[in-house]
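Researcher: Next sequence.
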Amino acid sequence: MLVKILDFQKNQALGVVQFQTELMNTFEYVSSTEAIKKNYVEVKEVSEGGSVNDLFVINLSDKFIFFMDGDILQGAKQNRVINTSMLIAPNTKINIPVSCVEAGRWRYSSSKFHSSEHIAPSKLRSEKAYHLKKNLELGKLFYSAQNILWSKVNDYETMHGMSSKTSDLNSIYEGKRGEFDEYVKGFEIKPEANGTAVFVKNKILNIDVFNREDIYSEYFPKILQSAAMETYHLKESLQPLSEAEAKYKTNDFFDKYDNMEFSIHKSLGAGNERRFETKEFTGLELMYEEHLIHLTSLGL
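Model: Next structure:
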């Protein structure tokens, strides 16, 4: 995959490279956040009793709707995180796989879900993707390891000195909002970018590529907040990340990407997934026909 590096920005242990891929803006779709806001889609519990690891989605529109791996949905019986990136076809009803990120609540706060301003932090996404891939290999569909993810939420609470009555991941973001906003305020989105590589010290934390510039611009602030969750408490490395090193490591990832080994899976939505795992990364590529919809690579 050919990329054009556009920008590098850094603050303490956090570094961000923004880039443009060779093919972009090739397919029309809207984000789940926009779709929920405009009532294109409804997201509910699968039944009155609910199921921790499944939700019911109704696409009421003639548009393709994109749910990203790591999207947090708030409401209903407990807050959930989307297990894998999906493209929901127009006028479709579908069950989607999720994981709980609010262990202490199992009661309705609303009849439907709404979008959070946040996505799951990278290490939680990485744990989820790693165990999901293992379950797919065992024929267990797109489910992850719920107990491990609850434990990961507890780790973030300890890391940031936060807690909530329901052990809610979103509550950590809200409690640290001012500090996180201050930490990432100097990072600006680069026009014409559709992808970013996020570094913690000298290591790639995550890479996300979107088909569309507008979808990228919507997710960029959420990616920064998730990076703050991972890096805000860290001191600068004794060998700080340089712009040259960050650009080299970003290009090196994509130079190696096309030669990685992939397992191919039919998406629960439209299109197919290609999943990969190396000593350093786990991730997926969501394709619809010849269009790359989303690529995510998460550091192990």
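Model: The first strand starts at residue 3 and ends at 11. The chain has one domain: 3-299.
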